[in-house]
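Pilot study result, target chain (196 residues):
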Amino acid sequence: MTAPTILCVAGSPRRHGNSELLLDSCVRGIEEAGGIADRLEVVEYDITPCQGCNACSLTEECVISDRMREIYPRIDAADAIVISSPVYFATVPAVLKALYDRCQPYWARQHVLNQPAPARRPGALLLVRGAGDPYGFEAAVLTTKSVFAVLGIDLVDTIEVEGVDSPSELGRHPDSIARAEELGSTLVGRTLEYRR
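Predicted structure:
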């Protein structure tokens, strides 16, 4: 049996911040459990926002020609997906939201073109935010669940870390770091369950 590939999406516009450090822990757990971590730093891809043209409802594909075309096959090939993101104004940052919105072809295939839904896969969400926003994590979670729904992803766990504003502050949350590593290992096991 081949090792499961887990797409590990770093959704921050800033490299090596708290959310990516949390993802690093998850990647360690994936690799220690024998999985393959396919890392994707969204900010490196300069994804053009969806233009709402609805062409994918006719063609099954997005008409925008950019590096998102490199990402679609990685989404399709993944046995599981984990997304790590900071929370900006209660939801995910623009660079990650652009990727989410460009998943519209998956929605169009199912809900307009009546194609079968993709096979179910497990997924997870790692969220980090500073203090002071009264609206918490809920919008970021719901936005991600919406995307996961069209990708055939079952959200098996969410880790939420609050009150971290600089990269050095994540170290004050060793339980969350350990939990992220454990989640990576758990995802590998869950992918094998889904294959049965």
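One observation from the pilot: Residues 92 and 171 are 22 Å apart (CA to CA). A full batch analysis is planned for the follow-on phase.
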